[in-house]
Design a protein that fits this description.
Keywords: Cytoplasm, Endonuclease, Hydrolase, Manganese, Metal-binding, Nuclease
Function: Endonuclease that specifically degrades the RNA of RNA-DNA hybrids.
Number of helices: 6
Order of helices and strands: EEHEHHEEHHH
CATH topology of the domain at 12-145: Nucleotidyltransferase, domain 5
InterPro entries: RNase_HII, RNase_HII/HIII, RNase_HII/HIII_dom, RNaseH-like_sf, RNaseH_sf
CATH class of the domain at 12-145: Alpha Beta
Number of strands: 5
Strand order of the largest sheet: 3-2-1-4-5
Cofactor: Mn(2+); Mg(2+)
Shape: globular
Family: Belongs to the RNase HII family.
Strand content: 5-15%
Radius of gyration: 19 Å
């Protein structure tokens, strides 16, 4: 059972990201502020919700949240600053774009870079504990999946329609056969290792 809030009295925004471990594509993050009466029986950590139910929840969250925002940081920036910093940057962008200024942040995970001196709480597996983080996980996941489906149309051999950029066997084999695209994260060392032949004497 998800907890509705971490505390009472302060405006609370839940934050989560999607796509941190992918070989390709951006990392997405969402920030969500929920009203007191928010409830949906399907709401949970996005990884525990079917794709069909995630779409139902996406619509419900967008229609019933007090405020929500989704942001992304692309693979070029991920390679430049590293994936952890990129994840925090995406969260900061999402928080900054909220129409209501939160007074406290709930962050899924164990680390965060403070945003504008707002108090924040890092909660391990928070997307399975607090409704606002779960809602953020749903939005980050659905928005990112939709983005990767669009990219799939241009690069079908990598099977992003199914793997959404994660390093599945099909995806790894395609990288080995066809190389990388402008959307791959080169800092993830995904290029196949070249066979080094010993030099003859």
């Amino acid at each position: 059972m998800l907890q509705p809030f971490y505390q009472q009295g302060l405006i609370e925004a839940g934050c989560d990201e999607a796509g941190r471990g992918c070989y390709a594509g951006p990392v997405f993050a969402a920030a969500v502020i929920l009203p007191d009466n928010f409830y949906h029986p399907l709401l949970n950590d996005s990884k525990k919700v079917t794709a069909t139910n995630r779409q139902i929840l996406k619509t419900f969250i967008e229609q019933n949240a007090m405020a929500f925002s989704v942001a992304m940081v692309d693979n070029v920036e991920i390679d430049r600053i590293n994936i952890l910093k990129a994840s925090f940057k995406a969260m900061h962008l999402a928080i900054a774009d909220l129409e209501i200024v939160p007074e406290i942040l709930l962050i899924d995970g164990n680390r965060f870079v403070p945003y504008n001196n707002l108090p924040h709480y890092c909660i391990i597996q928070g997307d399975g504990k607090y409704a606002s983080i779960a809602a953020a996980s749903i939005l980050a996941k659905t928005y990112r999946d939709a983005y990767m489906l669009q990219l799939h149309e241009s690069y079908p051999v990598y099977d992003w329609k199914k793997n959404k950029g994660y390093g599945t066997l099909t995806h790894r084999n395609a990288i080995e056969q066809f190389g990388v695209t402008p959307y791959h994260r080169l800092s993830f060392n995904i290029l196949p290792k070249q066979l080094v032949l010993p030099l003859g004497k």
